[in-house]
Amino acid sequence: MVSEQTPDDGTSGVEAEGVASVEADAADRIDADATIDLLRELVRIPSPFFEEAEIADYIHDWLDARGLDPEYHRVSEPDITGFEGDNVVARVEGTDPDAPTVLLNGHMDTVQHVEGWTEDPTSGRIEDGKLYGQGACDMKGGLAAILVAFEALAAGDYRGDVVLTAVVDEEGPFGLGTDALIRDGVVDDCDIAVVTEPAPMITQGDIENPALVLGARGRFLYEITVTGTAAHGSQPERGVNAALDAARLAAAIDEMDLGRHPKLGSGSTCLLSIEGGGEPLSVPDRCTLEIDRHVVPGETAVSVLADARRVADRLDLDSEVDISLRETPDPDMYFQPYVTDETHPLVAPFFESVRTRRGVDPDVGYFSSIGDFNHLGGRAGIPTVIAGPDGANVHGTGEYVLVDEVVETARLVADATRRIIE
Questions:
Q1: Could you identify which of 94, 251, 403, 404 might form a hypothetical disulfide with 2, taking C-beta atoms 3.0 to 4.6 angstroms apart as the criterion?
Q2: Peptidase M20 dimerisation domain: which residues (predicted)?
């Protein structure tokens, strides 16, 4: 849990002159009760991916009521998903166009509500410092944190800009909301991105808050069709069993050599589905596979396809094998791996803020899985820091977030951002 004591950040007592005292108070402008009230309201709005209209309107109105000039940013993907929706974007402009611009990014959607909850999954109930609800940890806690941090920063007078983006479809198949920000140039001038996903939850190795996550593996999805020859099940030698060959291929891909990275660790494969056969007493003549492939820097769409095809060629199966990657709305729209250098000058303020506010060095980790941070840190090439509240049961029943950590995340983001843009 986070102490509610006001830390000594070197700003107590009489400040020198000018706006220094105003700027130093960015984190202290954040009210804990108001932050938790906002979080509860966000959790009480159901927002499974592709169903974010209500929460987008709520966030737009929340920002508008505070004079923060929000805008809707249209997201359209007609070909594969048919999705139409809106991000919410706002900007606080600084006084110096040459000063850094900080992006605060969070997603509004959750997974589809899972079965098994013993209470309303949008209750927002608080007990023992935990706020419960689907998406409470992933990532409405982080979303509430950047909203109140943005409001606190808007009350200051700084050289640099702050851009807030509340996005759709992070939990869906493609990350359409953040992809649209990149394609439409919304984040072109951003020098560093802050994503308040629950940092300690899915990392390489065990870390605890306060923590900074500075990279993530990427991901591809193999779609494989194995075509054999049907025959009577009592005479399997007269056919070519596609299901059996598919199983052999899946096992071989599971054992193939994968890339390694000193920060991100090893890549991985995971068989997600295998479907085929089912006709009574018939040799299956067709089987399909979906296989997840998490990758590290240096592994590309071309190399990933070549790896799987090389495995299939070595098996010399009697079935025909077609291997492709999942169709995406655009060829470059995949989750690219990235690593942010912890010595980057715009990352240093996050370390300084943790040390000053918490009196410790932050844990440093690297995400095992994927998210909008891959689009920002990988495709857009923006140095990206993940820092967010901890909790448990993400994507499952009984999901909760630690409310003290939501407040501390907001104060960390406000303080570190202030250090960058002052």
A1: 404
A2: 215-315
- Bond prior to 345 in cis (omega within 30° of 0): no
Nearest CA-CA partner of 203 in 262, 251, 161, 265: 265
The strand pairing partners of 282, in sequence order, are 232
Q: In sequence order, what are the beta bridge partners of 212? A: 364
| Spatial CB neighbours of 352, under 8 Å, sequence gap ≥ 6 | 416, 419
One-letter amino acid of 103:
L
* Residues with pLDDT less than 70, the chain: 1-24
Give the residue carrying structure tokens 């299956």.
Answer: 284
pLDDT at site 332: 87
Contact by Cβ (8 Å): 294, 216: no
Task: Check: CB of residue 276 under 8 Å from CB of residue 226.
Answer: yes
How does DSSP assign 131-191, residue by residue? EESTTIIIIIHHHHHHHHHHHHHHTS--SSEEEEEEES-SSSSS-HHHHHHHHTTTTTT-S
CATH of domain 20-217+337-421: 3.40.630.10
How are beta strands 192-195 and 268-276 bridged, if at all?
Answer: unpaired
What Å distances lie between residue 341 and 214, 297, 349, 415, CA to CA?
7, 14, 13, 20
Asked, as a colleague might, if the bond just before 139 is cis with ω within 30 of 0, I would say yes
Q: How far apart are CA 381 and CA 298, in angstroms?
A: 15
- Among all chains, which residue has been given the structure tokens 């004591």? 5
Helix axes 32-43, 141-154, angle to 10 degrees: 130
| 45 to 79, 85, 196: CA distances (angstroms) | 28, 16, 19
Which residues are registered as beta bridge partners of 415?
none
What is the H or E stretch that residue 58 is in? helix 53-65
Per-residue pLDDT, 304: 97
